[in-house]
């Protein structure tokens, strides 16, 4: 998933970012409400993790602004405000879920997956193409029953390709989906990752990741 983390505590923000990236997610960050609202209005995230106590604009103002602009991106509030009134206010403002600080990281990720599914992503916890199987919960990939060891970045690539099976994906589309907008990528980094991924998933079966000359890549049976 492509996620936006909105948290003004730099240490906590970094902990959340590293934890999600280790699970293969692509993470962008905002440290204040104004930046969060500007980034969230883009609407390209699978989910947003939103703190309430933010500088410039507080979290509820950000959330209400997104919903007023018809941005339906799932939002999971993560905050130390934990009264019943706080929770009701957050949900009434348009939040999809609410996690109290301190929290167990696995709970946060599970709630993000659940909120994303409610917003129209595949409800199944497994992606399948031919004999290739990707269990999104365990982050385990197998082909013809044989487990394939992939790095977090390779898992992110594979999830993006499998969710878009049959579509031609340009290098620009792949970069936008899998890298923080502030990050710089070299001209051939996408090709390098695709080559590595292709070697691993095709070691036990027929080609599934195809080059569309001069455009990009497409995942499919033929």
List the helices and strands and how they pair.
Layout: E1 2-6, H1 10-22, E2 26-30, H2 33-40, E3 47-50, H3 59-68, E4 75-79, H4 84-92, E5 97-100, H5 105-118, E6 126-129, E7 132-135, E8 140-143, E9 146-148, H6 152-163, E10 168-170, H7 171-178, H8 189-201, E11 209-212, E12 216-219
Parallel strand pairs: 1-2, 1-3, 3-4, 4-5
Antiparallel strand pairs: 6-7, 7-8, 8-9, 10-12, 11-12
List its traits.
four-stranded antiparallel sheet, five-stranded parallel sheet, 222 residues, 39% helix, alpha/beta, Rossmann fold, Arc Repressor Mutant, subunit A
In summary, what is this structure?
This protein has 222 residues and is an alpha/beta fold.
Fold and architecture overview:
By secondary structure, this protein is an alpha/beta fold. It has 2 domains: 117 residues, 3-Layer(aba) Sandwich (Rossmann fold); 94 residues, Winged helix-like DNA-binding domain superfamily/Winged helix DNA-binding domain (Arc Repressor Mutant, subunit A), CATH 1.10.10.10. It is 39% helix and 22% strand. The strands form 3 sheets. Strands 2-1-3-4-5 form a 5-stranded parallel beta sheet, sandwiched between helices. A 4-stranded antiparallel beta sheet has the order 6-7-8-9, with helices on one face. A 3-stranded antiparallel beta sheet has the order 10-12-11. 31% of the residues are buried. The mean pLDDT is 85.
């Amino acid at each position: 998933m492509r996620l936006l983390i909105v948290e003004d505590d730099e240490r906590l923000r970094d902990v959340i970012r590293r934890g999600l990236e280790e699970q293969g997610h692509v993470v962008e960050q905002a440290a204040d409400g104004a930046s969060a609202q500007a980034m969230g209005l883009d609407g390209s995230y699978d989910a947003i993790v939103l703190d309430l106590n933010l500088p410039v604009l507080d979290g509820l103002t950000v959330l209400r602004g997104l919903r007023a602009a018809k941005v339906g991106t799932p939002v999971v509030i993560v905050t130390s405000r934990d009264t019943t009134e706080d929770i009701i206010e957050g949900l009434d403002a348009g939040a999809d879920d609410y996690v109290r600080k301190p929290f167990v990281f696995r709970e946060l990720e599970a709630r993000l997956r659940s909120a994303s599914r409610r917003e129209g992503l595949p409800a199944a916890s497994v992606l399948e193409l031919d004999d290739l199987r990707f269990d999104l919960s365990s982050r385990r990939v197998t082909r013809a029953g044989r487990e394939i060891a992939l790095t977090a970045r390779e898992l992110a690539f594979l999830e993006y390709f499998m969710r878009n099976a049959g579509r031609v994906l340009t290098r620009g589309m792949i970069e936008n989906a899998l890298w923080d907008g502030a990050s710089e990528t070299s001209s051939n980094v996408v090709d390098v990752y695709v080559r590595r991924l292709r070697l691993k998933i095709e070691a036990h079966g027929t080609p599934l990741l195809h080059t569309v000359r001069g455009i990009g890549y497409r995942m499919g049976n033929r």
